[in-house]
Write a structure and sequence with these properties.
GO terms for molecular function: DNA binding; DNA-binding transcription factor activity. It comes from Arabidopsis thaliana x Arabidopsis arenosa. It is found in: Nucleus. The chain contains nine helices and two strands. By secondary structure, it is an all-alpha fold. The protein has a domain of 47 residues: Homeodomain-like (Arc Repressor Mutant, subunit A), CATH 1.10.10. It has a two-stranded parallel sheet. Helix 4 packs across helix 5 and helix 5 packs across helix 6. The relative contact order is 0.23. The chain binds a DNA duplex (10 and 10 nucleotides) through strand 1, helix 6 and helix 7.
Length: 335
DNA sequence: CCACAAATAT
DNA sequence: GATATTTGTG
């Protein structure tokens, strides 16, 4: 076993898109729930209403299209502390209502990079501990939900099964497109054997989740804010990766064409977990503000979410595909 | 409550 | 077609 992951972390880190390579786009994702909760609207606070852009939605309570989060010209800026100005949630009046209730999240697009992260997480957790929740926590990707991971995991398992099935024979000349994604990441040896204990798997050194994008600054700002609220914040520990809405690979090898799409997502419970049963990894606490709504899933596991600062939605993407919006977590760039 | 797998829906 | 959601089970 050439488990020379003595530096898997280093490798992992390196394989991440470099700040320069990524972020050709300046879109970020803000949890819709969060956005709504904070009642974020265009900084142009002129009318507290006008929830309806010229977009004629179809019937249904199409929750306020997650879009319209247009940033002024200066998105990059600091922590412009949005929120706040919308203090009138009490009456809410017109816009208020309870839109966030029926909000649907956008379909997650599993880019090779994201999948890689997924595989890495699973690999290092050991099959034993690789359950959706844990994986999700380890991946530390903002916006990723347990369901997202569970769904993907299910598919991935089927893929693994299939792979074992035809280890020696078979033509296997054509793998479903699905397999392409999975094939983009090497399957760790132990995945194929049901016999492997995570013993040798060096568990991560506190794993400091990547921090790449320049938006990191924003996260830093957010973190600072959180710190303010929660003085117990530790030093640079982990930053969640922010999810950027992107779609259609730019000009790379062309992996996933802009075909699938989805809706938007919200945070819910992608916080961090604590060593509930087994003390697996270190817990973490970031302070975040969860506003009304959402019963907040018990704090059995202090989960928090990192507030993303800038929020811009990609309107064009919706067009390209007939109305659906594709959300891909962090830019794609084959590694 | 959570994980899982299969079926079903979008 | 890829992902989400539902359903049933452990």
């Amino acid at each position: 076993m050439r488990e020379d992951d003595s530096d898997w972390f280093a490798r992992w880190e390196e394989e991440l898109p470099s700040p320069e390579e990524l972020m050709p786009i300046s879109q970020s994702l803000i949890s819709p729930d969060l956005a709504l909760a904070f009642d974020i609207r265009t900084p142009n606070h002129g009318n507290g209403n006008s929830n309806q852009p010229h977009h004629h939605h179809h019937h249904q309570t199409t929750p306020p299209t997650p879009s319209q989060l247009q940033l002024p010209s200066s998105q990059a800026n600091s922590s412009a502390e949005f929120a706040a100005d919308s203090a009138d949630l009490g009456s809410g009046g017109a816009a208020g209502d309870e839109p966030a209730r029926t909000l649907k999240r956008p379909r997650l697009v599993w880019t090779p990079q994201l999948h890689k992260r997924f595989v890495d997480a699973v690999a290092h957790l050991g099959i034993k501990n690789a359950v959706p929740k844990t994986i999700m926590q380890l991946m530390s990707v903002d916006g990723l939900t347990r369901e997202n991971v569970a769904s993907h995991l299910q598919k991935y398992r089927l893929y693994l099964k299939r792979m074992q099935g035809l280890s020696s024979g078979g033509g296997a000349g054509s793998d479903p497109a699905t397999d392409r994604l999975f094939a983009s990441s090497p399957v760790p040896a132990h995945f194929l054997h049901p016999n492997r204990v995570p013993s040798s798997d060096h568990f991560m050194p506190s794993f400091v989740p990547i921090a790449t994008l320049q938006q990191q600054q924003q996260m830093a700002a957010a973190a600072a804010a959180a710190a303010a609220a929660n003085p117990h914040l530790q030093p640079p520990q982990f930053h969640r990766q922010i999810a950027a809405a992107h779609f259609g690979s730019p000009t790379n090898g062309g992996f996933s064409s802009p075909t699938s799409n989805g809706q938007f997502g919200s945070p819910t419970s992608n916080g961090f977990g604590s060593p509930t049963t087994n003390g697996k990894f270190d817990p973490s606490f970031l302070a975040v503000r969860q506003t009304q709504q959402q019963p907040i899933q018990r704090m059995s596991t202090p989960s928090l979410h990192s507030p993303v600062s800038n929020y811009v939605e990609d309107l064009e993407s919706a067009n390209a595909n007939g109305g659906r919006t594709v959300l891909t977590l962090f830019p794609t760039r084959d590694d």
